[in-house]
TrEMBL record:
<dbReference type="InterPro" id="IPR013078">
    <property type="entry name" value="His_Pase_superF_clade-1"/>
</dbReference>
<dbReference type="GO" id="GO:0005524">
    <property type="term" value="F:ATP binding"/>
</dbReference>
<dbReference type="GO" id="GO:0003873">
    <property type="term" value="F:6-phosphofructo-2-kinase activity"/>
</dbReference>
<keyword id="KW-0067">ATP-binding</keyword>
<dbReference type="Pfam" id="PF01591">
    <property type="entry name" value="6PF2K"/>
</dbReference>
<dbReference type="InterPro" id="IPR029033">
    <property type="entry name" value="His_PPase_superfam"/>
</dbReference>
<keyword id="KW-0547">Nucleotide-binding</keyword>
<dbReference type="InterPro" id="IPR001345">
    <property type="entry name" value="PG/BPGM_mutase_AS"/>
</dbReference>
<feature type="compositionally biased region" description="Polar residues">
    <location>
        <begin position="101"/>
        <end position="112"/>
    </location>
</feature>
<feature type="domain" description="6-phosphofructo-2-kinase">
    <location>
        <begin position="202"/>
        <end position="417"/>
    </location>
</feature>
<feature type="binding site">
    <location>
        <begin position="424"/>
        <end position="431"/>
    </location>
    <ligand>
        <name>substrate</name>
    </ligand>
</feature>
<feature type="binding site">
    <location>
        <position position="476"/>
    </location>
    <ligand>
        <name>substrate</name>
    </ligand>
</feature>
<protein>
    <recommendedName>
        <fullName>6-phosphofructo-2-kinase domain-containing protein</fullName>
    </recommendedName>
</protein>
<dbReference type="GO" id="GO:0006000">
    <property type="term" value="P:fructose metabolic process"/>
</dbReference>
<dbReference type="InterPro" id="IPR027417">
    <property type="entry name" value="P-loop_NTPase"/>
</dbReference>
<dbReference type="GO" id="GO:0006003">
    <property type="term" value="P:fructose 2,6-bisphosphate metabolic process"/>
</dbReference>
<feature type="region of interest" description="Disordered">
    <location>
        <begin position="101"/>
        <end position="125"/>
    </location>
</feature>
Length: 619
């Protein structure tokens, strides 16, 4: 227990302040340092008491601040290069997993189960058996024990050395093996972590491994949905991989199959397609043996016999949930087909676009002849979900933590094009001083940025009267939003900056000097490191999940005015960045990152409205 009495002589008035902190880590020196920082920079908040939601505030913003920002009329003058998402659209299937056995030489395994299953599902064939023999990489026998170890404890942040890790002695459940040395801790936190431990304790092995098997006619958004779901689950810390059978087919049989290859009475074509489907399934199951948790199996899987083959292969190894995409909107389908012919490697060499469209439509008719909608097992049917209104999900036999979250995510997704504008608050007084956290107001440069931002929003969203402005509850974001008028403003506690705990208000140098072990822990593992009485990046990601769901659900533009760590986490979701990279993503001050959500997936554009005046700012 730490007690301190602070006296402040403000002229005649003496302010006394008793501080009592329950801590074994905050020394009186620390307390004095943070009190001094607080005193030195404390300014009463200028926004305290503003409502969490303000709808269409009056013109005071314009009258008071005007637009002394003098933005150019042509916003493209502010466009700066995007670091990596690029403006070109990459074909989603190309980003999926590569076939193991097609890329590894010499690896073979006689997987009798697969041979029998394939034989029964396609009446056997010599080339088929030969092919099966070249299948699949070896399965690491050690994997299951490694996999067992991975899921047992969740690293609640490598934080202060004072938080002892549980040891075998303190952990009574005999069936857990503590592996405190390896970094094999799940990169999960919060709800995900709790579920992981619960699954480990109670869930049968099959439930802990989940295969989402896509079903649908071509151009129904299977790959699009598979890629989006993969991105969401990875962002939450679930080991997730996307396996696309079309990619396997192209690698094994080339990219110039005409529609005939897909005829239901083309025996060779059917066998070839089943072969690569089985190969992809083998690879996915092998990966799960090595620790993978959620496999997204992306193919048409258009017949019961095919789906039965997959269920037999998965028996005892993972739970299968079919995810069927259905679309009855002919305009959407026509657009999809044209997008496919534009983007798919199947038509990369097709010089006559319309001929390509005709060939794809012919392929479609062959699939329609044999298509059997899903009626079996656990399934989710997405029906006309494109626009975000009027569509629906039909589910059957869905239970458990992860399937429930997947359903909730999918029911909120749609393809209505809209921009999401991400920007940090204007430069703050603490940015200038290099101090972290806090609730400081804006510097002069930050106030100038707030006016430029208002002008930018006015121009960029002038035709969007249903847009909204989201801020955190900290004054530097609320003040940045203030000059924007004509749009509802919403304060999210979840958008508050990462909580630096006992380091709040300090500079990185002060932390390095007064708390070297904390500084070093964070340097070593910035993703999982949790400030004492504060947060880790994994904590921030978990608290941002409802924000992501709401951003997916919105059909109108949203301007998110937040903070460096928070925007790193949000950007990582849209840019599908690996979790390990999140804590170091560049999110410069006075720059707007425009995420364009639409029918071709996620694209990015950046506008830099001005430089940060102070070189240390934006740390
Ligand atoms: N739920 C959906 N319903 C209808 N169209 C969708 C849906 N989701 C995405 N789309 C649109 O469908 C287009 C094609 O999607 P995608 O390439 O994923 O089709 P696919 O079903 O995987 O086709 P194929 O089986 O030929 O690979 C996407 O560019 C997207 O605009
Ligand atoms: O994780 P990092 O790199 O310390 O960045 C987060 C920090 O960035 C800031 O938003 C600005 O320095 C701090 O308030 C916050 O602690």
């Amino acid at each position: 227990m730490g007690n301190a009495l602070f006296k402040l002589n403000e002229g005649k008035e003496v302010l006394e302040c008793k501080v009592q902190v329950e801590t074994e880590m905050l020394s009186p020196i620390d307390l004095a340092a943070s009190w001094r920082a607080h005193q030195e920079y404390f300014q009463p908040s200028r926004v305290r008491g503003t409502h969490d939601v303000t709808i269409n505030p009056g013109l005071e913003g314009r009258a008071k601040n005007g637009f002394a920002s003098g933005l150019e009329l042509d916003l493209d003058k502010y466009v700066v290069p995007t670091p990596n998402m690029g403006s070109g659209v990459v074909y989603a299937a190309s980003l999926t997993e590569n076939p193991r056995s097609l890329l590894q030489t010499g690896s073979s395994s006689n997987n009798d189960t697969t041979k029998d299953i394939l034989h029964n599902s396609t009446k056997g064939d010599s080339s088929l058996n030969h092919y099966v023999n070249t299948m699949k990489s070896t399965i690491g026998g050690h994997a299951s024990s490694l996999e067992e170890q991975r899921a047992m404890f969740v690293d609640r942040g490598v934080g202060s050395p004072n938080f002892a890790r549980p040891t075998m002695e303190t952990f009574s459940m005999s069936n857990f093996k503590l592996d405190s040395e390896s970094k094999g801790m799940p990169a999960a936190e919060g709800a995900v972590a709790a579920a992981a431990v619960a699954d480990q304790m109670y869930g049968p092995k099959e439930d802990r491994k989940l295969a989402i098997v896509l079903v649908g006619l071509p151009a129904r958004g299977k790959t699009f949905t598979a890629a989006k779901l993969t991105r969401y689950l990875r962002w939450l810390g679930h080991e997730t991989k996307h396996f696309n059978v079309g990619k396997y087919r192209r690698l094994k049989h080339g990219t110039n199959q005409t529609a005939d290859f897909f005829r239901g009475d083309n025996r060779e074509g059917v066998e070839a397609r089943n072969e690569v489907a089985a190969l992809a399934m083998e690879d996915m199951l092998s990966w799960m043996q090595e620790g993978g948790q959620v496999g997204i199996f992306d193919a048409t899987n258009s017949t019961r016999i095919r789906r039965n083959m997959l269920m037999k292969m998965a028996e005892g190894k993972c739970k299968i949930i079919f995810l069927e995409t259905l679309c009855n909107d002919q305009d959407v389908l026509e657009r999809n087909i044209r997008l496919k012919v534009q983007q798919s490697p199947d038509y990369a060499e097709q010089t006559d676009f319309e001929a390509g469209v005709q060939d794809f439509k012919e392929r479609l008719t062959y699939y329609e002849k044999v298509y059997e909608p899903v009626e079996e097992g656990s399934y989710i049917k997405m029906i006309d979900m494109v626009s975000g209104k009027g569509g629906q999900l039909k589910i059957n036999d869905i239970s458990g933590y992860l399937p429930g979250r997947i359903v909730f995510f999918l029911v909120n997704c749609h393809l209505t094009p809209r921009p999401i504008l991400l920007t940090r608050h204007g430069e703050s007084m603490d940015n200038v001083r290099g101090r972290i956290g806090g609730d400081s107001s804006l510097s002069e440069a930050g106030e100038l940025y707030s006016r430029k931002l208002a002008s930018f929003v006015e121009k960029r969203l002038k035709s969007e009267r249903t847009a909204s402005i989201w801020t955190s509850t900290l004054q530097r974001t609320i003040l940045t939003a203030h000059p924007i008028i004509g749009f509802p403003k919403i304060q999210w506690r979840a958008l508050d900056e990462i909580n630096a705990g006992v380091c709040d208000g300090m500079t990185y140098d002060e932390i390095k000097k007064s708390k070297p072990e904390e500084y070093e822990s964070r340097r070593k593992d910035k993703l999982r490191y949790r400030y004492p009485r504060g947060e880790s990046y994994l904590d921030v990601i978990q608290r941002l999940e409802p924000v992501i769901i709401e951003l997916e659900r919105q059909r109108a533009p949203v301007v998110v005015i937040a903070h460096q760590a928070v925007l790193r986490a949000l950007y990582a979701y849209f840019a599908d960045k690996p979790l390990e990279e999140v804590p170091n993503i560049e999110i410069p001050l006075h720059t707007i990152i425009e995420i364009q959500m639409g029918v071709a997936g996620v694209q990015e554009k950046r506008y830099k409205l001005m430089d940060a005046i102070h070189p240390t700012a934006g740390l």
